[in-house]
Write a structure and sequence with these properties.
The protein has about 80 residues and is α/β, with parallel strands linked by helices. Helix content is about 50%, strand content about 20%.
Length: about 80
Amino acid sequence: MKFILLCILLFACNFSGNAIHFFNGTYEEALQLAKKEKKNLFISFTASWCGPCRMMKKVVFEDPQVVRYADQHYICLNADIEYP
């Protein structure tokens, strides 16, 4: 349910200059950090050829409200589906 609400929030937001702070590490490291900080893990699956992924990156992931909410409640991880 939380995931569905987050998706709705992400699609409803407007454009701005900030960006979500994605964790720079492996899935296992992100999961450990999420457990340590008592946050949920948000994984953005993306690919260079994916138009909707690029739209989300430019429009949704740069909205200040989304950035603020994501930083408070999630450890965010980018997962490129083209590369293991």
